[in-house]
Amino acid sequence: MRTMYAPWRINYILGPKEKGCFLCIRRSRGYQQRHFILRETQACYVLLNRYPYSAAHLMVVPRRHTADLDALSADELLDFISLTRDAARVLKKAVAAHGINLGANLGRAAGAGLEDHFHFHIVPRWNGDHNFMPVLGDTCVLPEYLEQTYRRLLPYFE
To answer: What's the distance, CA 64 to chain centroid?
Structure first.
């Protein structure tokens, strides 16, 4: 049996757990970097997923805590989809993605790990990016630490 090391996970395992919704981010000194926020708009923000399916996996999140897509106002929805479009465009350029998966899981039956705060996942994809690891090893291999990905992507979002 082979061992794969993921030393960045120990901070999550041993660290204090946030109470409440982890997407309802309180603004304080250094919060953007601490939460890997790449861009903020009036109604939404985009950040790196801490537990990604793929390298540079982003999430677009409305600031307002709601599980219901229908609850977003027309202005919030326009801001949300515009930020999603911009983030997908940036990923294509910043990580040379050949394609993008966009997804939202609305409700537990649809696979939502967080049911109470609607968000989109933006996952960059590359031709041939699947190998045996996710299929046979039930393991996702990420090529760099989140902090490095954040620093690499940030200039594209400024």
So the answer is: 17
- The Cβ-side half-sphere exposure at 60, using a 13 Å CA radius, reads 26
Within 13 A of 16's CA, how many CA atoms are on the CB side?
Answer: 3
Domain boundaries along the sequence of the chain: 49-157
pLDDT, one tens digit per residue, over 96-151 is 999 999 988 888 887 777 778 899 999 998 887 665 445 444 556 666 788 999 99
3 state DSSP class of 62: strand
Distance (Å, whole) CA 16 – CA 19: 9
- pLDDT-derived band at 17 (thresholds 50, 70, 90) equals low
DSSP 8-55: THHHHHHSPPPPS-TTSPPP-TTHHHHTTEEEE-SSEEEEE-SS-SST
CATH 3.90.550.10 fits 49-157, yes or no: no
Which residue(s) pair with 61 in the sheet? Answer: 45
Nearest to 81 by CA among 117, 26, 122, 33: 122
